[in-house]
Amino acid sequence: MTITLPALAKESGHFYYRDGSPAYFVENKSKPGQMRPTTLRDCRKLGLKPSVTLIIGESNKPGLVNWKMNQVLLSALTLTRTDGETDEAFMQRIRQDAAEQAKKAAERGTQIHGWIEQGLSGGYVPDEGVEFVELAWKELKPLKQEWSHEKSFATERYGGKVDLHSTAGIVIDIKTNEKPVADATLWDDHAMQLAAYRFGLDMPNADCGILFVNHKGMESRLVMAEEKHLRRGMMMFNALLDYYYAKTGL
Q1: Which neighbouring-strand residues pair with 165?
Q2: Which residues of 70-93 are buried (b: 16+ CB within 10 A; e: fewer)?
């Protein structure tokens, strides 16, 4: 029987089996032959582990909040109010336009991230994606590591998938955006993600960093995290993990 997969579920909604394999989708019993995104109910029933990004989603992300606010402001500045349009109607149109622009930006970032992953692992990359792979490799090559790609894992309480790691002890996550890399900085959610990843890979002392790729200015920069920030990040992540389990009843 042919199994049909829906569009990939958002990373924030991912779950993992106990053996570390992804459980992004489950069989849709009401529609034989089709799959649907995994839900919290499935997680309870199958004993799945929530993803690192799902847990971090319980916290406030200043960088993301500011970006969303800027999207709304840009829409408000560029849209023209129609004659007779009420405040409520105009505000709703602004929100819809901002949401659409955010969706397009997210889709573009996901596409570029995919090209980079494929290129670094030796897979096929279309011509339009080659330059992004080269941008990423420019920062990674000086490290002289043998990289493992897209490694998934599960601990007793959570799971995840790591963009890049080396057995020599380096964990890297790739972020694509439109911000100048000169301004790139690590936020608390970055520290939490990296710390949770290295623990999940059983590499508690690994060096960790974020590889930022600006797909508008065509720049890249690798920013490594300080050990004190990683230790703090793990403490924050564990607190959020306890909160998530208490809230969901898992």
Answers
A1: 148, 171
A2: ebbeebbeeeeeeeeeeeeeeeeb
> pLDDT by residue (tens digit) across 67-104?
788 888 989 899 998 888 899 999 999 999 988 988 88
- Adjacency order of strands within the sheet including 159-166: 147-154, 159-166, 170-177, 207-214, 219-224
| 143: DSSP letter | G
Chain-centroid distance of CA 118 in Å reads 16
Strands (E) in the chain, as ranges, are: 15-16, 25-27, 35-37, 49-50, 147-154, 159-166, 170-177, 207-214, 219-224
Distance between first and last Cα of the chain: 33
In Å, how far from its chain's centre is CA 209?
14
User: Where are the domains positioned within the chain?
Assistant: 11-55, 56-248
| CATH class in words for 56-248 | alpha beta
Instruction: Categorize the per-residue pLDDT at 16 as very low, low, confident or very high, splitting at 50, 70 and 90.
Output: very high
**pLDDT digits 0-9 by tens, 157-178:** 999 999 999 989 999 999 998 8
Q: Is the dihedral of CA 186, 187, 191, 193 positive or negative?
A: negative
The answer to whether 150 and 118 are in contact (CB under 8 A) is: no
